[in-house]
Amino acid sequence: MDTAHINHLGELRTEVIHVRSQQRFLTDAPVDNQGRGEAISPTDMLAASLAACMLTTMDIKARAKGIALRNMRASVVKHMAADPRRVSRVEITIELDGEGLSSDDRSLMEHTAHNCPVALSLHPGLLQDLRFSYR
Hints:
3-stranded antiparallel β-sheet, GMP Synthetase, Chain A, domain 3, alpha+beta
């Protein structure tokens, strides 16, 4: 079964359709690469996918271990390089309530984030700068 269908809409824009859910969203080329920047760019999506995967796998691991993760969110900064144009670095800050999390729980969650499927699938030359902030 296909995972997604992507339609080229012209003007440096695509429509992405997730086959199973039929959810749709647009992508645009970024403003610094001739695009409108009115929708997420493919490289922004890559960086956001990394953070989303980290949060998801942390949640899966926490559920399995009976660990309560509260108010978890991530912020992402993407850095581009040229020649060839590529994502060179992704900075991710994961914030969550630290109350009730032991140092072992925190270590497990951090290890899980670093080893999520997207993180392990990316080129080793892409720097993944991950920070945790416990409130």
